[in-house]
Amino acid sequence: MSLSPETREKLRRVSTATLSSALYKRGLRNQMIQDVYPLSPPKESMVGEAYTLRYMPAREDINPMSVFRDHSHPQRRAVEECPPGAVLVMDSRKDARAASAGGILVTRLMVRGVAGVVTDGGFRDSADIAGLGFAAYHHRPSAPTNITLHQAIDINVPIGCGDAPVYPGDIVVGDADGVIIIPAGIVEEITADAVEMTVFEDFVQERVRGGQKTFGLYPPTDESNLEVFAAWRKERGR
Amino acid sequence: MSLSPETREKLRRVSTATLSSALYKRGLRNQMIQDVYPLSPPKESMVGEAYTLRYMPAREDINPMSVFRDHSHPQRRAVEECPPGAVLVMDSRKDARAASAGGILVTRLMVRGVAGVVTDGGFRDSADIAGLGFAAYHHRPSAPTNITLHQAIDINVPIGCGDAPVYPGDIVVGDADGVIIIPAGIVEEITADAVEMTVFEDFVQERVRGGQKTFGLYPPTDESNLEVFAAWRKERGR
Amino acid sequence: MSLSPETREKLRRVSTATLSSALYKRGLRNQMIQDVYPLSPPKESMVGEAYTLRYMPAREDINPMSVFRDHSHPQRRAVEECPPGAVLVMDSRKDARAASAGGILVTRLMVRGVAGVVTDGGFRDSADIAGLGFAAYHHRPSAPTNITLHQAIDINVPIGCGDAPVYPGDIVVGDADGVIIIPAGIVEEITADAVEMTVFEDFVQERVRGGQKTFGLYPPTDESNLEVFAAWRKERGR
Amino acid sequence: MSLSPETREKLRRVSTATLSSALYKRGLRNQMIQDVYPLSPPKESMVGEAYTLRYMPAREDINPMSVFRDHSHPQRRAVEECPPGAVLVMDSRKDARAASAGGILVTRLMVRGVAGVVTDGGFRDSADIAGLGFAAYHHRPSAPTNITLHQAIDINVPIGCGDAPVYPGDIVVGDADGVIIIPAGIVEEITADAVEMTVFEDFVQERVRGGQKTFGLYPPTDESNLEVFAAWRKERGR
Amino acid sequence: MSLSPETREKLRRVSTATLSSALYKRGLRNQMIQDVYPLSPPKESMVGEAYTLRYMPAREDINPMSVFRDHSHPQRRAVEECPPGAVLVMDSRKDARAASAGGILVTRLMVRGVAGVVTDGGFRDSADIAGLGFAAYHHRPSAPTNITLHQAIDINVPIGCGDAPVYPGDIVVGDADGVIIIPAGIVEEITADAVEMTVFEDFVQERVRGGQKTFGLYPPTDESNLEVFAAWRKERGR
Amino acid sequence: MSLSPETREKLRRVSTATLSSALYKRGLRNQMIQDVYPLSPPKESMVGEAYTLRYMPAREDINPMSVFRDHSHPQRRAVEECPPGAVLVMDSRKDARAASAGGILVTRLMVRGVAGVVTDGGFRDSADIAGLGFAAYHHRPSAPTNITLHQAIDINVPIGCGDAPVYPGDIVVGDADGVIIIPAGIVEEITADAVEMTVFEDFVQERVRGGQKTFGLYPPTDESNLEVFAAWRKERGR
Description:
The structure is a homohexamer of 238-residue chains.
Chain A: H1 5-12, H2 16-25, E1 32-33, E2 37-38, E3 46-57, H3 74-81, E4 87-91, E5 99-101, H4 103-111, E6 116-119, E7 122-123, H5 126-130, E8 136-138, E9 150-155, E10 159-161, E11 164-166, E12 171-175, E13 178-182, H6 187-209, H7 223-236
Parallel strand pairs in A: 3-4, 4-6, 5-7, 6-8
Antiparallel strand pairs in A: 1-13, 2-8, 3-9, 3-12, 10-11, 12-13
Helix pairs in contact in A: 2-6
């Protein structure tokens, strides 16, 4: 049911751009979390199952600083319960005027082996988080404590994040272009398709760098290009 | 626990403006649902307990037109289950590019004795709804069927609507200025305060129309105004 | 090739909401011109073939007031050349800070028998236009002369209007919910489908007003409702 | 120095659209207050000298409800000191999430003979204000008390309102299209130009309604139209 | 009255995130200047008293290039008069479509010993400014000369910047998360609180990196953690 | 008619800030493409004649993945036909929710000797493009394939890009501040003016770094500064 190590590894080697094309071919057009950015340039893709946290607007009377003393506070529980290998995805209603989380909680996620964290709001302590070498994506830095505007209310329910639908267990992939959500049920086929497309795109990219024009090559409407590709592929064992 | 007929009646006679001042005095500053409008000029205030529906972004593969054949579809269940006297409040993530509901469902709510309906998105069949004489508030008309962008996912959970926090059972009041949310636990005191403030504001409004200046009157820093007010009030039995 | 009188008449009796559902069933999700409003409450639907005008951002040196002395100025040509029965649709890049057109030009369109005018910007002389009894849709009133920000550049090319694609000859339908674009090639089938859906929706609306619950009726998963509908329909000759 | 009764009267009979064209001809392109609306359909134009109020963001510790007990509070002073015949223009930083003023203060302005009130935020008690028959323009209704977000800080200083520059003493004109600011120093010439343009536009509008095409008429590049206009004008004594 | 060297030094060692929490505890929720970014990664925090410049929308007739010949032009005066050690904070009405200032003026501020510069608009010559090693925060780069859209109008008055209230003399602190405003009257207590919180957060961060879970530690509801903290603190002499 | 090598070279040594001032002096205020950013820090300015591509909103039925098999597809033709030395400028209606182009096409542009590429939307494969050392400007990264939302419709027509007017053949200059459009007809005079201004600004910058105050120097109202400048200039042979 969960992501196999093989698929996880394959997903690390395909881009969110290629994945979005594979999803598009199946009629899925809104799987990209819009307008989120990695806090530091990704060295490799972030891959993991979605574990979600839902925020709603905060109400002043139920958000004194002391709320965090309660172990059942959903933000704190999410940080301790998000499974290793998963990605914590936060629905912050695209509101970055207050933080979704800060350096300590993100560090805890990293230490626990979580694969990454995403919010459509913002993180505080952004320089510290950027320095962790941990996959973290947000809209922009935001210093104010989350309870200024956000009330954590639900763990691991279906949410929206950056206008994309995110169901618990969906597969989350992030790279320099941002973060995409692959429905759990089609991850194998999408991955296979994306891996194939990537091989061809690598070939095309090499040819284009070498001076070949795109007509007939991308897409390969000129059949001779398919032959060259077959040879290229064989040679590289891909 | 639910709204008493007396409180309901009192709330009909105070404005959302006055209620927002009463809430402000208790430190609650974000209880107004921002940027929603009545579909027709309200003849009287809408008052009721909040019953909520949460939408998330739609995913194409799970939203064929046939989804509505399922009686457990949350949008349809909400319409049949929202209690008479309550207000159905929808979290449409402030996205009015597709409808939150249309004329038939809003008519059903009206026939069932529901007190009103609010979305921070938009309604389709807006002219029909405007003609019903039923309290309905949205951001703007929106013809596209809700499943174009919205997936109903939860019934009667805490939500955000127009950036305000809405908990099931909170009291919802709407007038020409928009819609405000009163936390359930303080509705009696807020109502009492708002009723008192309204008596004084009515007095001030009458005096100002009669030509009195606001200094000393509003607020009544000139004590003599309080005496005049006392007499005015007695005379009117308020 | 152009809209038949029969189809035109049928389209006047179906709503943009129903049309959007018919388009959705064929995979078309973005045909609604977003965020435009009629300048006066529509008495009947606006229906016509799209005739387009494209604006680009204005450049100060080529937009003295005297530009309008040139008969080939695209804005003025569009007003004189848009065919009777067609709808003039303007791509104003969703920028209502300057006008797309004003009272005189819209009056000329009306006198010439044009079916309506739509901009995703704004009209000046909005009260005059509202008083014409002519179908006009915009985002909001805007007094500044169009050359302040807009340069008319092309007539009858494919455009975007309110984020919807509009090709010359597409069918434009407007009502209180806004304006929808039907691709020319499928107008017959979409109209037929929408007319059928409207008959059923009228039946449902009547039943719901009469107190019937929506489960089993809308959609008609309870077969008995289909029998009642058949009888209802026969009786009304629809 | 102030607006003469004659100019005031003339300005009542020209539109903001025509005034914006007259200003455009003098190189002034940003004098329209963007995105404000009259609370009720204007029966006649609002005309007056600008008297300004500047809001800044509120700070919680200096905005208890009791601030209004101070007669020197700039919002309250502005309401009592704005001269009869002037228009009170408020810089609310285009933030309508809290009110700029409410029914009592607007009533006081009306009773004092002020010509109108404009904010690029919102008014509370909007239905009451709409019922006054007083010229009031805002972005949208807003119930929360102004101190929730706004701190009145300055009276009669140069401000921005809806992205337009407003200097105290500038002339403010409002109609159904919105509100325009005429620099005080050029009001006579702008008015004279607008009055002339209006005569011609009325002529054109009449001709267009009668079926004449716009080419050669608007603008009058066909000289014969100027002769017809001269006769038309003479006949009407304009 | 002004910032003591000790407090200034302490503020350099606490984060805007921690300061925002300290302000939140005192009921101040809107002190963060929203959506501004350092032009280069800050090596240390920016700290200084606020000295302000207010822009209003520009009017074309009073903004020829020659305006800057006047030594009393507020933008130029602000650059020459902002005290060493202070931070120049500009209210550009969140409009970055034209520059708030450029490389030469920012260099002058640096040479004069000013502590930093902040605008909620944009700077031109952004690469030059980024290379100065001077604390500068804006929304985004913006090449057009400021008089395209901005008219400098007031020096050292209370302003809004990025939706935060800024009073002259308030303390401004900036780091990678952005810029926060501390009311002058409470800077000592806020600083003291933030320093204390920082010691504890450093401890927590170290423990979390070492593998300790956050429950009971952050906040320290498990008393044993307080003992460990006491020892940790003693050891480090903090 | 096209850009001379001398002018091209001169334009590489002046900033978009200085160019915007030169344009402002001629009354051109909207030539900056708003809100676009280089994908990697520019080492030198991008300079070239504009070659344009216009996108409109995509329609699902005419955008299967197979559209790219057609050599006449405008996006693909633009990539193969944009002249060497020119800049491909794309009107993506400021919508970055889907890509304007990706790594392969941008590489092809680079290999073909095109001078740069600009979109007011976003590029996919943004890290790859950033690594090319090729001048590319966009609003933000965007992974989804362009046909998700964009339909390429026209090549080399006048367009809007980031609210600026762009005519084919206009001169495009980009640096760290963004991208500016110089009307083709005035490029020589604008360049000459900007070169002159740059010499003076370099002088001023050096003086300011050396401690001179800006009054009298910038602008040089103190004549003695002009003498020093003359000497400085002679010495450097500029």
